[in-house]
Amino acid sequence: MVVILAFKPATNPELAIGAAIPKSDIKMLDISGKQISLSDAKAEKGLLVIFSCNTCPYVKLSEARIKEVAVLAKTNKIGVILINSNEAQRDADDSFEEMKKYASSQGYDFYYVVDKNSQIADAFGATRTPHCFLFDKKGLVYRGAIDDNIKDVNDAKELYLKGAITSVAAGKLIKINSTKSVGCSIKRVEEE
To answer: In what helix (H) or strand (E) does residue 12 lie, and over which residues does it extend?
Structure first.
């Protein structure tokens, strides 16, 4: 078997609104050293999944927002997990050791896990970092971007993810449940 580092696109379509959490029992290595599944990360009212990494400039632009929505989610009994699916960069800046350093420098107080072989990203149809998926007790209620201005939160007019989290917490319908995620492509490994 020859492994070629490539930017293999996601082969699955983006997870549909209403879908259950896929592959929820697969254990992934968390920066704490523990094995965590999406089921483990889920809290009373749901789960916020964000596909992220250490290297994407769009993630770096979003760090304050990611931490802010994580606090909002946890305050409202919604679990939070960041997933690093950049398998093609696992021996470089997205290695487990670099993830631990990055999370420490950012003050993460939520799960940040390794998605081995990008299997969770593939199941979600996740293509970008950051790419957000919010689940309530029944299924997926929001997917897409954090807000409508990845480059400058001060110019954002629509705070999609905050609105979705607030709606889930209040048991209300989400006005905008799907947006386009803008960011770097997830770096998958293509096998030949």
So the answer is: none
